[in-house]
Design goal:
Structural class: alpha/beta
Helix content: 40-55%
Strand order of the largest sheet: 1-7-9-10-11-12-13
Strand content: 5-15%
Radius of gyration: 27 Å
Number of helices: 28
Number of strands: 25
Shape: globular
Distance between the termini: 67 Å
Largest sheet: 7 strands, parallel
Length: about 800
């Protein structure tokens, strides 16, 4: 029988929980507030209920240590900016309420006489979650504004639940921020670490006064490569905080990878607990086993995957955690990261394949897994006892029950693992898919030379300088959503649905003709989501009804579950593209989602390498490209907005990922003729880190988000000698504001100083699905006018050749 662990302060916890509500209550409340259908008090009441329900759900599952302050109206980085007083002057001067100032930073402010764009947005590490990028300067006046955190603690106390407030750590906050525009050249926000630590020190004192026993500070930035100076800053800040005479105990949480040298740094600071992700960063197991100074540390072992929907092999993970015995002071089990990244509850799903259900665990089921593992380790909670409050969980009676529950919990762990392994073995491979993959050669991923392709495409398309287009989608109106709902409910037959979609395509084509765009799109009215739409037509995917996950703000996605071998039973987009092309003499783009993005925005099988799954998807898309081409479609866009998203956080792992990601895209597109233009699109990422791979995709035209970053991506393109077509976005579609013609012309002029005009395209940052026609029509009109204005000032050789 394994030796029990030294009893720590808690044996089970999770690092966070979904916050949109199981039926997207927050999403709908936010959108009603923004459209002035409800008051701030109404919104706050809905948010309060979500927070209370979340605490009760976690505590009621038997998880011992309940995280608090995991709720956000929009984004936790934005919350932290307000917490520490890092509000840029342009927002502070608006004179708005704190809530509306917050939303102005997130969404911009567009009123007569007030044109203020939102903060820049980018991806949260290698996830599909987005965060707002704080702006920090040398004179940013940090000051504590702790009411929201303290109110959450007080409300939890009234509910009878002691919570551990969760906060973005000071170093991660600074490392993910950007220098404000007025900052001196070379300034890095992390230079302000000591001053920001003072604010956190004050906050810890306030929380101690409020009776808080533990605080969680998230430092995921340290699972990426960090300089010696950045590691020194981590050591200095946490030594400072750990030395405070009056504070709660500190849990410093990492996730999405291995802390590497930062683990030893943190272990030497005096913090009481460190959370490590043993799912995404399994190398940490060996580091812990070899000795890292963790003898006095309470290790929170992230062994339940917080980013995927697959059930945990509890026996395997229990053995893993038991193997750490004696290497650390004490151990707790946890989710690998916040459960923000998975849906709420698999029991809400009634239409998933029966054979798939035993393999799945959403957030609610992951609570059960964590509680059961904790009980098997000798903790409280689990199958024999459910704690409803922290006070109940710490009584002597509960401790006695827990000791008795350990054998029952261990038996439950073993039984669950056996069921899971049986369910996995029931998955059948598709021999035809695997044989086709095995037959591939290097020529299947190679197109002809770009100059030859460019000449053939221009001869076919006859486009002007600064050709205008959009990224693909047009607004998804209430009528379109209603038609899809009626089709699902059986109140509308497929013929009637197709008629409605064709009517919308007619409208979108006519609008683009009237606006004067050069390359048109059909607007994607038939698509619920750019990944789900394709997954629904590919073998190997399953879909939820309520499996929503927050992407940013009120934006939610419902990722497909990719569980088997993938192939295309029939064409997916050809009929819609052919119909749209029949309505105009201008070229209409065929619109596909690329293999990497389909993987990134799905919950992907974990029983084979991602590279193999990506190639399976790519072959299905290759067949679609061929059929679109045969249907007369001259421009085919294969979007890869998630290319940067899946990039491993350690530099040593980049090359292998980028190799298979590029190979998959080229497999999908290399069958196209020279005269068929292959476009791709990327958005909201740090492009500089993957700019070489973007070049290697070998797309004829690449459109890239650039409006919020003021065309910064052009420097990256210049650095790698990018020589193909590029469309740096000039219209930020993630804000409701309508940019003026002059504003767009200025951005386009900046682009034309770096990109030869015959290779420069004019387009928005991203698809228009989430915007309203009242915003889209004037914005696109201004975009076309700006292109005409700048076009008139250019000659073919006027720009620098990138």
């Amino acid at each position: 029988m394994p030796q029990p662990f030294a009893s720590g302060p808690f044996v089970s916890t999770v690092l966070g929980y979904p916050r949109i509500g199981p039926r997207r209550e927050l999403k709908f409340a936010l959108e009603k507030y923004w459209s002035e259908q409800i008051t701030a008090a109404d919104l706050e009441s809905i948010a309060l209920n979500i927070r209370r329900d979340t605490r009760a759900e976690i505590a009621g599952a038997g998880v011992e240590a309940v995280p608090g302050n995991t709720f956000s109206y929009y984004d936790q980085m934005l919350d932290t900016a307000l917490l520490v007083g890092a509000v840029p002057r342009r927002y502070a001067q608006l004179g708005l309420s704190p809530l509306d100032t917050y939303f102005a930073m997130a969404r911009g402010r567009h009123e007569p006489g007030t044109e203020i764009p939102a903060l820049e947005m980018t991806k949260w590490f290698d996830t599909n979650y987005h965060y707002l990028v704080p702006e920090i300067g040398q004179d940013t006046a940090f000051a504590l504004h702790a009411d929201a955190v303290l109110d959450d603690v007080a409300d939890a106390d009234q509910q009878g639940i002691k919570v551990r407030p969760v906060l973005i750590g000071p170093l991660t906050f600074l490392l993910l921020s950007k220098p404000e525009a007025a900052a001196a050249e070379g300034f890095s926000p992390v230079e302000r670490a000591a001053e920001l630590a003072d604010v956190y020190a004050e906050l810890l004192g306030r929380l101690a006064d409020a009776g808080v026993e533990w605080v969680q500070l998230d430092e995921p930035a340290y699972v990426a490569d960090r300089t010696e100076a950045e590691l020194a800053a981590l050591a200095a800040v946490y030594r400072r905080l750990a030395a405070l005479p009056h504070r709660p105990k500190l849990l410093v949480a990492s996730y999405f990878g291995d802390l590497g040298p930062a683990l030893e740094v943190l272990a030497g600071t005096g913090v009481e607990s460190i959370a490590v992700d043993l799912v995404a960063g399994p190398a940490a197991v060996e580091r812990i086993a070899s000795g890292t100074g963790l003898a006095g540390v309470h290790l929170v072992a992230g062994v339940v995957d917080g980013r995927n929907v697959w059930a945990t092999d509890l026996s395997q993970q229990l053995d893993l955690v038991r193997g750490l015995a004696g290497r650390v002071g004490s151990v707790a089990v946890s989710s690998s990261c916040s459960l923000l990244h998975v849906p709420y509850d698999v029991t809400m799903e009634t239409e998933l394949p029966a054979e798939l259900l035993p393999r799945l665990a959403f957030a609610r089921q992951k609570l059960d897994e964590v509680a059961l593992l904790g009980a098997a380790l000798g903790g409280r909670g689990g199958p024999a006892e459910t704690a409803t409050t922290a006070a109940a969980a710490t009584t002597a009676a509960a401790a006695t029950t827990a000791a008795a529950a350990t054998p029952a919990a261990a038996a439950a762990v073993a039984e669950r693992s056996e069921r899971l392994r049986a369910a996995r073995q029931a998955v059948r491979a598709d021999a035809s898919v695997r044989d086709r993959l095995a037959s591939l050669g290097a020529a299947d991923r190679q197109r002809g030379d770009y100059p030859v392709r460019a000449a053939a495409q221009q001869q076919r398309l006859r486009l002007p300088l600064l050709a205008t287009t959009t990224i693909g989608s047009f607004p998804q109106t209430a009528e379109l959503r209603r038609a899809r709902a009626e089709l699902r409910a059986g109140r509308l037959d497929s013929s009637g649905y197709a008629d409605q979609m064709r009517t919308e395509i007619d409208r979108v084509i006519a609008l683009q003709e009237e606006l004067g765009l050069d390359v048109l799109v059909h607007g994607e009215p038939e698509r619920n989501d750019m990944v789900q739409y394709f997954g629904e037509q590919l073998a190997g995917f399953a879909f939820t009804r309520h499996g929503w996950v927050q992407s940013y703000g009120s934006r939610c996605v419902r990722p497909p579950i990719l569980f088997g071998d993938v192939h295309r039973p029939r064409p997916m987009t050809v009929d819609w593209a052919r119909y749209a092309q029949s309505r105009t003499a201008k070229p209409v783009k065929g619109m596909l989602t690329g293999p990497v993005t389909i993987l990134a925005w799905s919950f992907v099988r974990d029983d084979q390498p991602l590279a193999r799954t990506a190639d399976q998807v790519a072959l299905a898309l290759r067949d679609e490209v061929a059929d679109l081409q045969d249907a007369g479609i001259a421009v085919i866009q294969v979007d890869e907005p998630a290319l940067r998203e899946l990039l491993p956080l350690r530099n040593s792992e980049h090359a292998e990922y980028l190799r298979w990601a590029v190979d998959a895209f080229r497999l999908a597109t290399a069958g196209a003729d020279d005269a068929t233009a292959i476009h791709t699109h990327l958005c909201y990422s740090e492009f500089g880190e993957v700019i070489g791979a973007i070049d290697e995709l070998d797309a004829d035209v690449t459109s890239i988000e650039a409006a919020r970053s003021n065309m910064e991506v052009l420097d990256d393109l210049r650095r790698v000698g990018y020589r193909r077509g590029v469309g740096p976005g000039v219209y930020d579609i993630h804000s409701p504001r309508v940019p003026s013609t002059d504003e767009l012309a200025r951005l386009l002029t900046t682009a034309a100083e770096s990109v030869a005009p015959q290779r420069l395209w004019v387009n928005p940052d991203c698809g228009l699905k989430t915007r309203r026609y009242a915003e889209v029509e004037p914005a696109l009109r201004h975009l076309v006018q700006a292109a005409e204005q700048v076009r008139g000032t250019l000659t073919a050789g006027a720009a620098v050749q990138v």
